[in-house]
């Protein structure tokens, strides 16, 4: 029997295929998802990994055997699946392992309207059912099996996104897109069709073995090809999508990465122009510039923990118009509170194309501080090292909070130290008014963490 504790994570299912899970287990997950949601119909999609069609097909069979009608949308990005869930009003399952290596696969689940399914919202219950059925299979369902039908929603997805951002008045832009052999190669051509964009595609061939580089733009090594191509072609901007194309990273005309915090601030300003006085969610690792820009544009910033479930909960609770994370996840009320890197990219393109200056100049107003980026330290005693840092920084004039890990804030700098949920790591992020202060605070904290 598979060890489900190894593959059922906080927000999704993820593991090595076939070592940790396979199509027989996927079929049980489909049956359990049908039972837990109580839905009469669901929608299922998958990415380009070699194992994805088989796994998603097995999941569909499991759900259909429980009397649930299944709409299969086939190859899609994760945000395309969220679109289908929102537009059709159906719970959904997306088969992807996002940026993980080729041998991995997983399932991202949502209820109707793209509402997230995590440990506290159905995933623990699904795991319990699958464990109970692992030996004998799912029990027979009363009534007839559901129908499995195919539907292509790519054109509708693209039309919806373009209805939210008007690029008709944009100046022509040369845009390099690195899809990393992931689902951006599937969605970008349709979304960009008819826009004033000279598209320079990189690695658009769908290939779940990732022959060129990992589809994880959070790692700077995976941006090198994009940066070089932007400089070589004299492009206005470069975009990099992760494997399931729900995250988008941006480089400017010089090939320099633009911080996701600056993108969050830029998009927040644009959303507030459409929705004056709106609430914007940001996690506690985004830059000081994000709440500053939100307030300057008449909005209300709300700070939350890291992670899409927390962002989406706060979006729903506050009626927020937009949310952004340092990891380049961007959430929109106009997109069922779900994250979509493609919609964020369209906002950046519209902002760039609506004025004459280069991107580096445009984002300067949103990129106001020096930052360390995320620094990981392998430590055996996460709690002990974090406590030692807390003790060292518990001094007058310094504010400490433990909303998510330890955040320490002074007049000119702040840092956050968080333990990984899955690895023996402590993650450090530092921001300050200048680079020298970042270096000083970073070194002080790391000296304690790595002692």
Automatic annotation (TrEMBL):
<dbReference type="Pfam" id="PF02879">
    <property type="entry name" value="PGM_PMM_II"/>
</dbReference>
<feature type="domain" description="Alpha-D-phosphohexomutase alpha/beta/alpha">
    <location>
        <begin position="156"/>
        <end position="255"/>
    </location>
</feature>
<keyword id="KW-0479">Metal-binding</keyword>
<dbReference type="InterPro" id="IPR005845">
    <property type="entry name" value="A-D-PHexomutase_a/b/a-II"/>
</dbReference>
<dbReference type="Pfam" id="PF00408">
    <property type="entry name" value="PGM_PMM_IV"/>
</dbReference>
<dbReference type="Pfam" id="PF02878">
    <property type="entry name" value="PGM_PMM_I"/>
</dbReference>
<dbReference type="InterPro" id="IPR005844">
    <property type="entry name" value="A-D-PHexomutase_a/b/a-I"/>
</dbReference>
<dbReference type="Pfam" id="PF02880">
    <property type="entry name" value="PGM_PMM_III"/>
</dbReference>
<comment type="similarity">
    <text>Belongs to the phosphohexose mutase family.</text>
</comment>
<dbReference type="GO" id="GO:0004615">
    <property type="term" value="F:phosphomannomutase activity"/>
</dbReference>
<dbReference type="InterPro" id="IPR036900">
    <property type="entry name" value="A-D-PHexomutase_C_sf"/>
</dbReference>
<dbReference type="InterPro" id="IPR016055">
    <property type="entry name" value="A-D-PHexomutase_a/b/a-I/II/III"/>
</dbReference>
<keyword id="KW-0413">Isomerase</keyword>
<keyword id="KW-0597">Phosphoprotein</keyword>
<dbReference type="InterPro" id="IPR005843">
    <property type="entry name" value="A-D-PHexomutase_C"/>
</dbReference>
<dbReference type="InterPro" id="IPR005846">
    <property type="entry name" value="A-D-PHexomutase_a/b/a-III"/>
</dbReference>
<keyword id="KW-0460">Magnesium</keyword>
<feature type="domain" description="Alpha-D-phosphohexomutase alpha/beta/alpha">
    <location>
        <begin position="263"/>
        <end position="369"/>
    </location>
</feature>
<feature type="domain" description="Alpha-D-phosphohexomutase alpha/beta/alpha">
    <location>
        <begin position="6"/>
        <end position="131"/>
    </location>
</feature>
<dbReference type="InterPro" id="IPR005841">
    <property type="entry name" value="Alpha-D-phosphohexomutase_SF"/>
</dbReference>
<protein>
    <submittedName>
        <fullName>Phosphomannomutase</fullName>
        <ecNumber>5.4.2.8</ecNumber>
    </submittedName>
</protein>
<feature type="domain" description="Alpha-D-phosphohexomutase C-terminal">
    <location>
        <begin position="374"/>
        <end position="446"/>
    </location>
</feature>
């Amino acid at each position: 029997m598979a060890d489900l504790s190894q593959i059922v994570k906080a927000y999704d299912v993820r593991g090595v295929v076939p070592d940790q899970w396979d199509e027989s287990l996927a079929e049980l997950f489909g049956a359990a998802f049908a039972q837990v949601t109580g839905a009469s119909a669901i929608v299922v999609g998958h990415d380009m990994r070699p194992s994805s069609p088989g796994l998603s097909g097995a999941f569909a069979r499991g759900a259909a055997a429980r009397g649930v009608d299944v709409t299969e949308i086939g190859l899609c990005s994760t945000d395309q699946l969220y679109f289908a869930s929102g537009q059709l009003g159906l719970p959904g399952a997306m088969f992807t392992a996002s940026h993980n290596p080729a041998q991995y696969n997983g399932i991202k689940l949502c209820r109707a309207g793209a509402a997230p399914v995590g440990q506290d919202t159905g995933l623990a219950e699904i795991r319990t059912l699958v464990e109970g059925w692992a030996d004998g299979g799912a029990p027979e369902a009363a009534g007839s099996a559901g129908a499995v039908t195919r539907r292509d929603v790519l054109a509708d997805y693209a039309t919806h996104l373009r209805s939210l951002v008007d690029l008709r008045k944009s100046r022509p832009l040369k845009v390099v897109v690195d899809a990393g052999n992931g689902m951006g190669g599937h969605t970008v051509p349709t979304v960009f069709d008819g826009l004033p964009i000279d598209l320079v595609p990189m690695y658009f061939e769908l290939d779940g073995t990732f022959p060129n580089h990992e589809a994880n733009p959070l790692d700077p090594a995976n941006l090198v090809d994009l940066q070089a191509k932007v400089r070589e072609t004299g492009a206005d901007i470069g975009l990099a999508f992760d494997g399931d194309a729900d995250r988008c990273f941006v480089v400017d005309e010089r090939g320099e990465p633009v911080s996701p915090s600056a993108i969050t601030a830029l998009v927040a300003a644009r959303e507030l122009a459409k929705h004056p006085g709106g609430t914007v969610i940001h996690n506690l690792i985004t830059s000081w510039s994000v709440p500053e820009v939100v307030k300057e544009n008449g909005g209300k910033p709300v700070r939350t923990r890291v992670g899409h479930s927390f962002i989406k909960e706060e979006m729903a609770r506050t009626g927020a118009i937009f949310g952004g994370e340092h990891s380049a996840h961007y959430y929109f009320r106009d997109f069922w509170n779900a994250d979509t890197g493609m919609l964020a990219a369209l906002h950046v393109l519209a902002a760039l194309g609506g004025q004459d200056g280069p991107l580096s100049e445009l984002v300067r107003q949103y990129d106001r501080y020096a930052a360390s980026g995320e620094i990981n330290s392998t430590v055996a005693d996460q709690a002990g090292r974090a406590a030692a840092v807390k003790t060292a920084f518990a001094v007058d004039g310094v504010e400490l909070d433990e909303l998510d890990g330890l955040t320490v804030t002074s007049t000119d700098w702040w840092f956050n130290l968080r333990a990984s949920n899955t690895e023996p790591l402590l993650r450090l992020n530092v921001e300050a008014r200048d680079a020298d202060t970042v270096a000083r605070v970073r070194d002080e904290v790391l000296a304690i963490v790595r002692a």
